[in-house]
Amino acid sequence: MSNNKDFIYGRGAQLNVHNRFDAHDHEFRDDFLNHCATEGDVVQNSKTVLIDTFPKTIVNKVNSPDVGMGFSLNPYQGCEHGCIYCYARNSHEYWGYSAGLDFEQKILVKRNAVELLEKKISSKKWEASPIVLSGNTDCYQPIEKKLKITRQLLQTFLKYKHPVGIITKNALVQRDIDILKDLAADNLIQVNLSVTSLEEETRRILEPRTASIKKRLETIEKLSVAGIPVSVMMAPIIPSINSHEIMPLVKEISERGALGVGYTIVRLNGAIGGIFTDWIRKAMPDRADKVLHQIESVHGGSLNDSRFGTRMKGEGEFASQVAQQFKIAKAKYLKGRERPVLNCDLHEQYKDGQMKLF
């Protein structure tokens, strides 16, 4: 990694890009920057800010055919983990913020999330279908340790015997093993842990505020031992950054008890193309052009492909090589393992929060 003195350590994005919905743009002029340097002032405050929100709904229907979930729930908007490649960055623009540093620093907290979930799944019109926590941003990002909104949501799912999935890259999920075990007893839970690399230095610069690789591997093992179904997402695969790790990573997670593995190939949609390009030229200047060109080769000459069916896995020689490696890795290390189908049959009996006797 570069020793660039202007690099903002502990953050993924290195700048705030223009919000496409804003009529006006702003920039830091040289005279302002020089003044800050002379006076010792900070140009941008890097502290995380929590913003309370009270939405009207909390469960979102997912219409994308290649995401693999029907409904999602996100107790937080924005994510302090700061993963540089995160597709969710663009969603922050809808709230009036930048997809860059704002996404990591301005976290919207849905204070009424539990109340809205209970109202939704206790409705007579609702038919049980798995709801995935973190379809957009991580439900176990750092502030969850204090606020415990995700824990309360899991308690609500348990109360109503409703199936739920979790996607996270934070070891904080271990805190809730007690609830997850109770959900697992009725086949109401699946956990998907994101593990992008086995190399801690790669993790540190790609995903600066996430759990360490050691803690994530430990989490897979602890969930598995507790009887909680856990799979792994190696997402995204980034050429020349983590693309060489497929076989060793699948081997490692299989030894920890993972039931399956999935992957996506990086696509830099919307504002993320500019954010990632700026980041890699500062973080990895020696290989920036190579990585960017390889990403383009997977998406028909562009950093992004929005077509359903191809956007997640890419096309071309590199994409084919990745697909083949995963096929071999799964056959070698995960043969015979299957993720259980979540149970949607119990919920109707618990619509009022307790077992119906008649």
TrEMBL record:
Q: Where are the transmembrane segments?
A: none
Q: Which InterPro entries match?
A: Elp3/MiaA/NifB-like_rSAM, MJ0683-like, rSAM, rSAM_sf
Q: What keywords does the record list, in alphabetical order?
A: Iron, Iron-sulfur, Metal-binding
Listed SMART domains: Elp3 (SM00729)
Origin species: Salegentibacter salinarum
Q: PROSITE patterns attached here?
A: RADICAL_SAM
Statement: the UniProt record of this protein carries the keyword rRNA processing: no
Q: What NCBIfam families does the record point to? A: rSAM_PA0069
Recall the taxonomic lineage recorded for the source organism: Bacteria, Pseudomonadati, Bacteroidota, Flavobacteriia, Flavobacteriales
What molecular function terms (GO) are annotated for this protein? catalytic activity; iron-sulfur cluster binding; metal ion binding
Write down what this protein is called. Radical SAM protein
Q: Where in this chain does the record put each Radical SAM core domain?
A: 65-302
